[in-house]
Amino acid sequence: GPFFDVDTRPLIDEQGHLYVASFQGKVVSLSLDGMRYWEQSIGTGVDMVLDGERLYVSATDGRVVVLNRKSGAIIWESKIGAGALTSVSRYHDTLVVGSSKKLIYFLNAQNGEVMAYRFAKKGIISHPVLADDEIYFLSNGGLVYALRLRDQKKK
Predict the structure, then answer these.
(1) In sequence order, what are the residues at sequence separation of 6 or more whose Cβ sits closer than 8 angstroms to the Cβ of residue 55?
(2) Which residue has the higher pLDDT, 28 or 1?
C-alpha cells in the first residue's frame, strides 16, 4: 500500500534492497522494482541507519529498534522514554540517540541496554554527529554540546 507522512530518506544497501519508512507505522524492505521482502509495524519520523546486517530505527513510540536487514526480524528493542527521538549514531559498540525530553542516551549496540545518559537543556531533535571520539549535537535550547564518548560513565 501507499506510504503516508514520510519524513525519512530511503536507504539502499549494496545488494539493491530499498528500506523505506513512514511516521504512521511501517518500515519496509523492497526490491528496486517494488517487490516487498518484509514489513515491520514501526513508525519513525527520522532517518534510519544501516550498518552491516542491522537496520537501526528510532521509533515514534520512544523505542530504539534494531532489525535484521535481510529478514526484518527484531534483534532487540529498547524503550528509552517518551518524546521524539533523533536518528541513531554509532560509535564502536555504543549507540547514541537524543530525545526531545532533555536527554541523550548511550546504548549498548549489542543488546540495547542504556549504559549512560546526559541531560541537554530543553531536549534534542538534531541528529548527533560523530567525529573521532566526540559527539556533537544542538539542543532545543540553542546550545551546542560536545561530549567525549570514551568519558561517558555508567548512569
Answers:
(1) 11, 19, 27, 48, 49, 66, 67, 68, 69
(2) 28
